[in-house]
Design brief:
The complex is a heterodimer of chains A (about 190) and B (about 35). In chain A, strands 2, 3, 4, 5, 6, 7, 8 and 9 form an eight-stranded mixed beta sheet that branches. With about 190 residues, chain A is an alpha+beta fold. Chain A has five helices and nine strands; from the N terminus they run E-E-H-H-E-E-E-H-E-E-E-H-E-H. By secondary structure, chain B is mainly β. Chain B is flat. Classes of the chains: A alpha+beta (about 190), B mainly beta (about 35). The interface between A and B is large, with 62 and 32 residues. Strand 6 of chain A pairs antiparallel with strand 1 of chain B, so a sheet runs across the interface.
Chain lengths: ~190, ~35
């Protein structure tokens, strides 16, 4: 039962693996209204350089329009209907996802090889409230620890490293593991 | 993406938050990024 999960405490951040898109906020298919609203909100927060920030390379969620903030933790949130709640919640899919193994995230990255955009993957620290799953975690707070960048230049990789204060390497796209395809009866990939 | 079923809830409270310190770096020109 979901409400009978075992509870534990850890004094050290958990470390998992995840992947990101590499993109500039300006590249996002946003309307002029969205951009103007974002800039106005940043100005009201007193964030300096908010226009320049739009043109910087950043890590973005693979599945959500969320950009990871450099030099700060990412705080998960959930706007589920009908009721917003703190993330992660046991009965929801919210929170910052991470896989337990690098092999799992490399298989995900391989599937994005022809998406037309650079993809980064690497280790991520999770802390705060964390829901442990069989193959990974969903956390409330997160920050990247290192990056491997596929489909991008050394210069872009260096920009990401500097932005997030982590080591980053440009690497070739990982190969998809053929095993799951065989298991699904789709034959071996040449 | 599949991480299986939830098995445990963990309250993680590190002494220090593991957040990298950004360095100033010039932005890469857009044409350097392959489509």
């Amino acid at each position: 039962m979901l409400h009978e999960l075992e509870f534990a405490f850890s004094p050290e951040a958990l470390v998992g693996w995840r992947a990101w898109r590499v993109a500039r906020p300006i590249d996002r298919e946003a309307s002029a209204l969205e951009l103007a609203t974002g800039l106005l909100a940043a100005e009201r927060r007193g964030d300096p350089g908010s226009v320049e920030e739009l043109f910087r390379l950043r890590l973005r969620s693979l599945t959500e329009p969320t950009f990871w903030p450099p030099g700060r933790r990412l705080e998960a949130s959930c706007h589920a209907v009908p009721q917003e709640h703190e993330a992660p919640s046991v009965g929801c899919e919210c929170g910052v996802w991470a896989f337990r193994t690098s092999a799992a995230v490399e298989a995900t990255v391989a599937a994005y090889r022809y998406c037309g955009a650079p993809i980064a993957f690497g280790r991520v620290a999770l802390w705060g409230r964390v829901i442990e799953h069989e193959l990974g975690w969903r956390g409330a707070l997160a920050a990247p620890l290192d990056l491997f960048v596929c489909g991008s230049s050394e210069a872009a990789t260096s920009e990401l490293a500097a932005a997030y204060g982590v080591e980053a390497s440009a690497v070739v796209w990982p190969q998809a593991d053929p095993e799951p395809l065989v298991e699904r009866g789709r034959g071996q990939v040449a | 993406m599949d991480i299986g079923d939830p098995v445990r809830e963990i309250e993680v409270v590190p002494e220090e938050e593991p957040i990298g310190v950004p360095e100033e770096a010039p932005a890469v020109e857009p044409e350097e990024i392959p489509a």
